[in-house]
Amino acid sequence: MGILLRWKIPTDSDVSYDKTYIYRSDSKNGTYEQIAVQNISDNTYFDKNGTTSHWYKIRFYDSANDIWSDYSDPIQGGSFSFYCTIEDVRTVSGLSESEISDSELYNIMQRIALPQINADLNIRVIREKIEYIDETRQNDIDSNNTTFYVKNWKEFYIGDLNNDGIVDENDVIVYQVDANGTETQLTVNTVYPNEGKFVLDSAPEGDKDLYVTYCYAPVSESDPHPLLRAAFATLVAAWAYTRLDAGKLKSYSIGKLRIAKQSDAFVTFYQKYKQLLNELKSKPIKKIEGQSVYELLTPVTKVRQI
C-alpha cells in the first residue's frame, strides 16, 4: 500500500535547517520511532510499509548549529487535508502547481475554507446535560462509568468543533458540576464521532451533573463523506481562483460609485459549492436499525443553549 507524506518547508530566517527527520507510530499517542532522514529540499516521503493506521511526525535539523525544530503535530497515514486532498482540489479546479502551489492551497484550506464549511454545515450545542437515552446508552454517572453518548447520536455525527479538520478528543468539552455549582472540566480520552460516543479519562463521581459542549453534522467528518469531500474541494477551488484573479479584477465607475467585477471562476465554483451544501443538509443522514432518518437543517440558528 504505502503512504505518501508531504509537508511545508520552514522559512525561519534565523535557523538554516538542512535535514528533515520522519517518525512513525502505531497510534496517535504512542512511541514515535525514526524511519528516515533526508535533505530538507525534498518535502515528500513515501513510506512503502505505511498504512492508514500509522501516525507520523516530522522535525527539522540545522546540522551546522545543532538546532532542532519542534515536532510537528501527529498526522495519520492516508488522512485527508481536512475534508479532501490537494489532488481533489486540482481535479475539480484544473489548477496546476505552476499556477498555485500546494502550500498556498493548504493555507486556503486551513484558514478560509475549513472554518467556512464548518460554520455552514455544523450545529453547535452548548452545555447539553448528559442524561439517560436508552437501555444501551444509559449515561450512568456512578463513579464507575467512563463512556457517554450525546443526545444527537442517532441522526447525526460529532463534528469538528475547533476547526482543525480532525474530529478527536479536542472537539468534545465535558464539565462536571457539583451541588454548589462548582464546575470542573474533565479530560476526554477518546471520541467515536460516527457513534456519537466519547470516553473520559476517569469516571465522574455519582453525585455530580455532567454537561457536554460539541457540534454535530449531517455526515461523517472524521472519514469524510464523498459529498462533503466534493463540497470542500469546490469551496477551496473558488477561493483559489479569487486569489489568482485578485490582481486581474476589472473595475468601473458610475458617478462616485466604483464597482469591481467579481471573478467569474469564483462565482461558478461558489455556486456549485452552495448546491452541494444544500444536498448535504437535505440528504438521508443516517440509517439506524433499518430506518432512514431524513432531516432538513436550517442555518437560522447556529448556536443552541441546552
Describe the fold and architecture:
The chain is an alpha+beta fold and 306 residues long. Among the domains are: 1-79, Sandwich (Immunoglobulin-like), CATH 2.60.40.10; 122-217, no CATH class. Helix content is 22%, strand content 30%. Strands 8, 10, 11, 12, 15 and 20 form a six-stranded mixed β-sheet that branches. Strands 2, 3, 5, 6 and 7 form a five-stranded antiparallel β-sheet that branches. Helix 1 (86-93) packs across helix 3 (226-245), helix 2 (102-121) crosses helix 3 and helix 3 (226-245) runs antiparallel to helix 4. The longest helix is centred in the middle third of the chain and has 20 residues, at 102-121. It is globular, with a radius of gyration of 23 Å.
Q: What's the end-to-end separation, in Å?
A: 46 Å
Q: Give the count of helical stretches.
A: 4
Low-confidence stretches: 287-306
Give the overall average pLDDT. Answer: 84
Largest sheet data: 6 strands, mixed
How would you sum up the global shape? Answer: globular
Brief overview, please?
The chain is an alpha+beta fold and 306 residues long. It has helices at 86-93, 102-121, 226-245, 264-282; strands spanning 3-6, 19-25, 33-39, 44-47, 55-62, 67-68, 75-76, 123-129, 147-149, 157-158, 173-177, 183-186, 188-192, 197-200, 209-217, 251-254, 257-260, 284-288, 291-294, 303-305.
Q: Which structural traits does this protein have?
A:
alpha+beta; Immunoglobulin-like; globular
